[in-house]
Write a structure and sequence with these properties.
The chain has 9 helices and 7 strands. It is α/β, with parallel strands linked by helices and about 270 residues long. It starts with a helix and ends with a helix.
């Protein structure tokens, strides 16, 4: 039996939950975990966003939950679907919180309704789903919670306040979870990417070959965490993130702002 086939066979009873699978990073996560033999619950707004090839896994490995993560009961709906799948004999191996929305605005001009929706998707849906799934993970005494963060959680740029705040809140939440859940054998982690190809913002630089390479680095980092090949809590998702996070260490607020401006210009 080949190594790849052996991995797939070992993963066939393991369930991975991935939010935000319709495009970009989430779509790549979906393809890679299906390819490794996992059962996957894909949480996304529209199943029609999935590639035709990916849709061919529906009914065998792929389970779909169409959901607007900004809705108040999003977390409970995810947990309910997970519970139904576990009743078929699956084990919840990992939850990968990837979904995010970006709203760029100055603080002065910020639309509070859009700011609320940004926090709802990027933070409160994660909090709600995690609360509902913790009892499942505790009963198993195993499992992994992984969130995709952002350098914006560490450096605030102009017109990026609410997105930065949502990602900073996400990181503090997961820091607490890491301490709370460690006694139960549950691994908690964050992947902090630099720039990569994404539909969050339609910037031209996100279409470059360099950005595609960076996206692949983020995907590999997440896969390594799920496979228990990585130690540590906050993990740089690619080389750019490693360099920026390293340069921020020990800096004063003023120095951090200077670095933030230079990083923004480089993008």
């Amino acid at each position: 039996m080949s190594g790849a086939r052996g991995v797939a066979m070992n993963n066939k009873s393991k369930l991975i939950v991935i939010t935000g699978c319709g495009s970009g990073l989430g779509a790549e996560f979906l393809v890679r975990f299906l390819g490794r033999g996992y059962q996957v619950l894909a949480v996304l707004r529209r199943r029609d966003d999935l590639d035709v090839e990916v849709q061919s896994y529906i009914g065998s490995q792929l389970h779909i939950l169409e959901l607007d993560l900004a809705c108040e009961n999003a977390g409970r709906k995810i947990a309910s679907q997970v519970t139904s799948l576990l009743e078929t004999g699956l084990c919840l191996d990992a939850v990968l919180f990837n979904a995010a929305v970006h709203y760029g605005s100055s603080v002065e001009d910020m639309n509070l309704a859009r700011a609320h929706d940004t926090m709802a998707v990027n933070f409160y849906s994660v909090l709600s789903a995690t609360q509902c799934l913790i009892p499942v993970l505790k009963r198993q005494r195993s499992g992994k919670l992984l969130a995709i963060s952002s350098l914006s959680a560490h450096i605030a740029l102009a017109n990026d306040a609410i997105y930065s705040a949502s990602k900073a809140a996400l990181e503090r939440l997961f820091e607490s979870l890491d301490v709370e859940l460690a006694p139960f054998g549950i691994d908690v982690g964050l992947v902090v990417p630099g720039a990569f190809k994404s539909n969050l913002m339609n910037a031209e630089e996100n279409q470059s070959d360099k950005a595609s390479v960076a996206l692949n680095e983020v995907v590999e980092t997440a896969i390594d965490f799920v496979a228990c090949n990585l130690d540590g809590f906050s993990i740089p998702g690619n080389q750019q993130a490693k360099e920026v996070l390293g340069s921020l260490s020990g800096k004063s607020p003023k120095e951090r702002q200077q670095l933030a401006r230079s990083w923004s210009v480089s993008q």
